[in-house]
């Protein structure tokens, strides 16, 4: 396994006072030309519209999806399935709502593909994007993936209808999507998957939200940043046997509360996972972050509001800056920033380049 080491950036001080947060935020506003200080918490520190993957998906050759391939626009299931499964690279623009038939149908995605919603209207309804073992170099971006839930079947153990499911893949970037009312896992990154980044997504209205693992091997490297978990119960994420799991600037809010004392939780470092959490925001969450005795979890800079239960921290885990450069947003800015800029954005998928 090859690791490309990013240039080290200056570390943010831990637990900055209000003055330091305000100064940082004002600088962000000025840089983006947003104007009013009232919008400061919605000012991102990175180029949200870049087509270049960051985090672990940027290493070992990077993740470019269908770049260089033909650009096509699809409006129906047959066209989406045709181009997604093709051997050659494609940039596939999804325009409007595609309702999968039969209910829960898989759209198989082959290597070297970008699937991106046009503006905020691209949707896959009651279907799943499925990446088979060996698939690599895939970008799924700016889509709404929704409504494969089955009324009355909360656990969905007999259906396995996910929003996106991938097994033993590498170099995948899942960015700016909205997952809602999915029957099983909204996003399942399974088996020995490597070089994954999950950024600026919204996970809403679900039981099993975002699972990683289902393997005895400790190989997965994953970056999870600027995601919003809202009205969800568990797995935000559940990370089992990840070599490196880096979570930063995520927002967990409005957790479903059904009285379950164990399986209602936020982040879980499981098995032999090494997890680092930075500058997150947890609002009304039971068990915000926890770790198995065999795992490691380092947390720094997060804000906890109205939380209860486990807040485990032990082990040294790893230093993400040994692998790639990144810049943290202040934890206090995360709720407004993530609610404004996560999920599908009208600026994305509009152009064909």
Automatic annotation (TrEMBL):
Q: Which GO terms describe its molecular function?
A: pectate lyase activity
Looking at the record, the residues that make up the Pectate lyase domain are: 67-269
Location within or outside the cell: Secreted
- The main place the protein resides is secreted
InterPro entries of this UniProt entry? Pec_lyase, Pectin_lyas_fold, Pectin_lyase_fold/virulence, PEL
* Pfam families on file: Pectate_lyase_4
Q: Does the keyword GTP-binding apply?
A: no
Q: SUPFAM superfamilies, per this entry?
A: Pectin lyase-like
What keywords would UniProt list here?
A: Carbohydrate metabolism, Lyase, Polysaccharide degradation, Secreted
GO CC annotations?
Answer: extracellular region
Q: Which example biological process does GO assign this protein?
A: polysaccharide catabolic process
Tell me its family.
Belongs to the polysaccharide lyase 1 family.
Could you identify this protein by its name?
A: Pectin esterase
Which organism does this sequence originate in? Streptomyces acidicola
